[in-house]
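Tokens in:
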């Protein structure tokens, strides 16, 4: 009875070998990838190694080279089982034999017994050996790097998970006590709990303004959290796309006026009926307008056009005369938290969530976002020099679902 290490990623092949060698009285230990195979070989000191050539991380050639470089394993027979690798290459890297796939089940255990008894298929010259020694060094370094990378990867995944959990907990803990605060404040302000003096009213109004700001921050945090966990909930109802666009423009107009930015609009007169989640869509549009507003310098221009394309697509296009976005940043600014200038000393506020939010929402409504800089075409008959953000949704999307991460 011998201990055989089998390195193979295909579970069916592992099962077959396990069965055939198990029946012959051998103990079979298994690894699914190259790095794991090397670690297991070191730990368990097998009597024979069976290695598939086409396996994850380090392939069968590299595993063999590496095993041959470990002194305790130098005498252990290594047999390649593969459909692809050719016999000469497997022998050249240090295998002692080669078994073609598919395995011949009737003779497999006998063939293995021969290798265990000392049968070898190779003959090598000195130059082969030198080359192998050099290559072994390279593979050794490669193995170390792969192990380091997979550890780093694991750590990054842990950090990402902790961040998601933290966001979820914090946003929930902050949102819950907001409800009674807002509710009681309303009752007080409506004088349902008794008449107010002027001074009391003034104080409460000031509290209300701050509460609204706090509410906006909490809403953003909730959005981040649902974006991160992929658990955004959408409601479907009939709405007028044109009306949502007008509402978004109404919200942004005072901001643009304040900064002396000219707004050129082109919105159709007639309603544009659609199905979807108008509240989320409105917030997506406001985010895009808010960007155009905050990145356009005083005295600049923002152009907005609302239009239908074909009978399904509805478009909300926002162009500005701001600084534009460099080509290498265009895809990245739609990722959560990415900002071209992420420093705390930057001029503009925000957490880098607006476009990520807008992208998820429009995708859930059957469309998406397209960004070009400088703008790919005219918007409201204006060819501006900054950025064009185009939100697209479908009139009747498939039922929007929570987006998988
Ligand atoms: N119209 C634009 N002109 C120039 N840069 C833009 C424009 N829109 C977005 N960007 C760049 O993309 C980044 C991400 O935008 P996004 O709306 O996602 O986040 P934000 O505006 O920084 O913060 P938030 O929207 O959460 O308040 C911005 O920080 C900015 O660097
Ligand atoms: Mg923004």
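Residues out:
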């Amino acid at each position: 009875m011998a201990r055989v290490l089998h390195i193979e990623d295909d579970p069916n092949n592992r099962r077959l070998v396990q069965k055939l060698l198990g029946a012959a009285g051998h103990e079979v230990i298994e690894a699914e990838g190259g790095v794991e195979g090397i670690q297991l070989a070191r730990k368990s000191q097998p009597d024979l190694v069976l290695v598939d050539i086409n396996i994850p991380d380090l392939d069968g050639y590299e595993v063999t080279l590496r095993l041959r470089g470990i002194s305790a394993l130098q005498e252990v027979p290594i047999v390649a089982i593969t459909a692809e690798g050719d016999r000469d290459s497997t022998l050249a890297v240090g295998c002692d034999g080669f078994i073609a796939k598919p395995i011949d089940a009737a003779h497999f255990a006998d063939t293995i017994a021969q290798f265990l008894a000392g049968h070898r298929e190779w003959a090598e010259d000195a130059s082969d050996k030198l080359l192998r020694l050099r290559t072994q060094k390279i593979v050794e370094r490669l193995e170390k790097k792969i192990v380091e990378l997979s550890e780093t990867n694991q750590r990054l995944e842990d950090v990402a998970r902790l961040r998601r959990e933290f966001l979820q907990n914090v946003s929930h803990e902050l949102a819950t006590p907001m409800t009674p605060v807002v509710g009681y404040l309303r009752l007080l302000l409506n004088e349902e709990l008794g008449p107010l003096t002027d001074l009391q009213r003034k104080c409460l109004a000031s509290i209300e303004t701050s509460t609204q700001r706090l509410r906006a921050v909490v809403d953003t945090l909730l959005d981040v959290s649902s974006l991160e966990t992929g658990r955004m909930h959408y409601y479907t109802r009939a709405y007028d796309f044109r009306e949502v666009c007008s509402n978004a423009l109404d919200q942004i107009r005072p901001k643009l006026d304040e900064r002396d930015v000219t707004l050129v609009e082109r919105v159709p007169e007639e309603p544009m009926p659609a199905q979807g989640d108008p509240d989320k869509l409105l917030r997506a549009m406001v985010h895009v307008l808010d960007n155009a507003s905050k990145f356009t310098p005083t005295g600049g221009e923002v152009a907005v056009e609302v239009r239908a394309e074909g009978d399904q697509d509805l478009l909300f296009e926002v162009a500005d005369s701001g600084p534009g976005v460099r080509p290498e940043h265009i895809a990245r600014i739609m990722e959560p938290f990415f900002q071209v200038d992420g420093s705390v000393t930057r001029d503009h506020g925000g957490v880098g969530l607006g476009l990520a939010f807008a992208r998820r929402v429009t995708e859930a409504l059957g469309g998406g976002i397209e960004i070009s800089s400088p703008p790919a075409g005219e918007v409201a008959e204006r060819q501006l020099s900054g950025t064009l953000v185009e939100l697209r949704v479908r009139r009747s999307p498939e039922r929007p679902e929570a987006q998988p991460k």
